[in-house]
Amino acid sequence: MNLDFTPEQLALQIQKAGQIIRELYEEKLDRHVFPGKTPGEIQEIFDESLPQDGIEIGKLLKKVREDVVGSATMNIGPHYYGYITGGGNQVAILAEMISAALNQNNLKWHSSPVSTELEKLVIKWVSEFIGYSDKAAGAILDGGSTANFNCLAVARKNMAPENLSVEGMYGMKPMTIYVSEEGHSSFDKAVDALGIGLNNLRKIPVDDQFRIRTDLLKAKIQDDRKAGLNPICVIGIAGTTNSGAVDNLGELVKIAKDENLWYHVDAAYGGPAAKLESVSHLFEGLGEADSVVVNPHKWLYVPFEAACILVKEPEKLRRTFSLIPDYLRSNEDEGGRTDLMEYQLPLTKSFKSLKVWMTLKAFGSTRLRETIQADIDHAQYLETLIETSGDFEMLAPVPLSITCFRYAPAGLDEKQLDELNQKLAHAIEQDGRIFLTATKIKGKTALRTCFINPRTTKKDVEWIPVVIRDLAGKLG
To answer: What's the mean per-residue pLDDT of the chain?
Structure first.
């Protein structure tokens, strides 16, 4: 039974869907960021049995306009500062529509030649954008957690004895991996799932800039060797989730080489800033990493999902994931084919490269870098507003585009300040005019903003302390 529209109907429905998108950007960007609905209220909107009969598409799109858009957090808007959520771009919306229509399955070259070749090109372009090797191989995955998992799998495979694949880790010396205590939670998940064990993920303390203490790192590696363990990997963070701190990547390169360790850099957030004149000094050493993660869906403004793994030596990546069963063999007489299933854990994967390729083609590296710099400028402007305010306090440096601060009116002790800022974080969410998150900085509750949206203006930045003061007044 044919499920397609007629060509005329398809054009009409695309037009109607386009109108919803137009309204979203024309009318709704400045609405309250958080929809203000409880889980129960959203569940009630969509609570129905499995449909036995379909409804007219116009009615369905009306429900999408009212209930889906109406229940969404507006993270594409200029007042969203939570997590590290890029604002997307409209060129990539067109890419997503075309990608869905083509419905490519990017597992083997002949199943999708164009998506394979564009993915290889995008990996090369992203590597160049951040100053990484032009010989690197990689893949575009769903997010940084999956990407970090894949890269640690490559590190484990290439640093372990040859019999790992056949015998597993039984009887081997326990492997150890090193990361700062500010490292992302994806590393905890990865060492757990990879059988390395949480106790063997060494979380090294940080300095006053929230960068890994390399002196303590070196001492810990030596202690582990003396204890009969097998150190295999050191991780550098190029933009921590908490405060945007960038480890001393150059020092980590030297340690990794001296100790014969795999060197992985988590640049999921900060990587796109690596060649900006204003902050490039922070990223010296990035180009020497064995593997890197960088997420175009963060600071290259690509809609979710698009996270790149980059591995300097392609054969080490292929060695980790290549497995070709009979049902996936194909005629290779023509040569020159690359099957991306050999370079990543997933087999089935959508045409993720199109939206990254179209973004880079439409805007070019110069304009994208200028936009990234504007985000950094906004973070530094908020830092200035905080430092000159009299009733706010900065809690961490601002190396990139994340600010961590707290509302700190006079007369309150540490416990009261913590309680007040915890209440403020919840009040800000429910109020909805702006959206930010809370975190802990040296044990203190901080309000955290991340500027990673080209729609945010200087005026929007100025509004942040205004809203917080207003809500603090209401809290008494």
So the answer is: 94
Report how far residue 227's alpha carbon sits from residue 408's, in angstroms, rounded to the nearest whole number.
47
In 44-94 the beta strands, taken as DSSP E runs, fall at none
| First-residue to last-residue Cα distance in the chain | 64
CA–CA separation, 313 vs 132, rounded Å?
12
Strands 291-294 and 262-266: parallel
- Angle formed by the axes of helices 90-102 and 353-387, nearest 10°: 150
Q: Which CATH number is associated with domain 97-360?
A: 3.40.640.10
Helices 144-159 and 186-193: crossing angle in degrees, nearest 10, is 40
Between the alpha carbon of residue 31 and those of residues 10, 25, 452, 469, the distances in Å are: 31, 11, 19, 20
Distance CA 91, CA 300 (A): 12
pLDDT band at 341 (very low <50, low <70, confident <90, very high): confident
Q: How far is CA 450 from CA 82, 183, 218, 401, in A?
A: 6, 17, 32, 6
- Using CB atoms within 10 Å of the CB of residue 325, give its burial: 0 to 12 exposed, 13 to 18 middle, 19+ buried: exposed
- The residue extents of the domains of the chain are 97-360
Q: In sequence order, what DSSP letters do the residues of 7-50 get, joined into one string?
A: HHHHHHHHHHHHHHHHHHHHHSTTS-SS----HHHHHHHH--PP
> Which of 310, 167, 182, 176 shows the shortest CA–CA distance to 234?
176
Q: Mention every residue, 6+ apart, whose C-beta is less than 8 A from residue 228.
A: 173
For 256-299, how does the pLDDT look when each residue is reduced to its tens digit (9 = 90+)? 999 999 999 999 999 999 999 999 999 999 999 999 999 999 99
**Tens digit of each residue's pLDDT (9 = 90 or more) over 221-242:** 999 999 999 999 999 999 999 9
Give every CB contact of residue 259 below 8 A, 6+ residues apart in sequence.
218, 221, 231, 234
